Amino acid sequence: MSVKVLIPTPLQKLTNDQATVECxxxxxxxxxxxxxxNCPGIKDRLCDESGQLRxxxxxxxxxxxxxxLDGPNTTLSDGDEVSIVPxxxxx
Length: 91
Fold this sequence. Notes:
Elements: E1 3-6, E2 20-23, H1 28-38, H2 42-46, E3 57-61, E4 64-65, E5 81-86
Parallel strand pairs: 1-5
Antiparallel strand pairs: 1-2, 3-4, 3-5
Protein name: MoaD/ThiS family protein
InterPro entries: Beta-grasp_dom_sf, Mopterin_synth/thiamin_S_b, Sulfur_Carrier/Prot_Modifier, ThiS/MoaD-like
Organism: Oscillatoriales cyanobacterium SpSt-418
């Protein structure tokens, strides 16, 4: 099963400047493990010390926010598109 992952610009240095990468995984959690295996160091940017997804990084599966699905246990299907979107704050 292959899932397309859209990588935000600040993290592309960890993906050899690729804006998209293909990963495998039946869930977001498994996808993150595969992404880390292919792009060492990226998981530290996406997850905290306890392995939980960071609050300021949003994940979308086919434009659906995983916070309203099943979080890191959100299931993935072949051909899905996962977007990683860092939150932007300001005033």
